[in-house]
Design brief:
CATH class: Mainly Alpha
Radius of gyration: 19 Å
CATH architecture: Up-down Bundle
Number of strands: 0
CATH superfamily: CDP-alcohol phosphotransferase transmembrane (TM) domain
Order of helices and strands: HHHHHH
Oligomer: single chain
Largest sheet: none
Number of helices: 6
Strand content: under 5%
Amino acid sequence: MDAPEPSGRPGPALYHAPVHRIPNVLASIRIALAPVVVALALGDAPASLTAGLFAIAAATDFFDGYLARKWEVTTVLGAFLDSTADKLLVTGSLLALIAMDRVSVWAALVIVMREFIVMALRSLTAVEGTVVPPSVWGKVKATAQFVAIFLAFMRWGEPVGGLFIDEWVLWVAVVITVASGWGYLQAFFAHLQRASVRS
């Protein structure tokens, strides 16, 4: 009998085993939960239920990426599902919070515009076979947005300086969102410059 694969790295069998699909399943769960969160937020569900379900959906963002990297099973489909799930969850939740009058339309607009601009830039570079890798700012951005949305669903405490704590956190998330978007723009223009030099 052959010796087992070393425990440090996944063996070839892992790529054909059902376990390697877990990251994609988690992203798919996040996609499925997005409209449920919106329905709860706009219905008569307790805020804790809406926020709790949102937190579970947001947590899958960490675990699907972590497991995909750990098991070295990152795929084009997985990257697509992960990005789509994040956009649906964040955009849907922001729209629900706008309807609840808990989020500034301008803050939500900046966040959504950034997501679509980055998506367009990634698509343009992908056509040429180039991938713009995610930056640490992208991870910080996602975390800040998730925390702000969770707090907005809960809406704890009283206003401080004219804004609730979740509103302050959301504006911090907006600043980080713009900064991370600028990073992607710089990476895109650097790619264009390299492409023009090669041509």
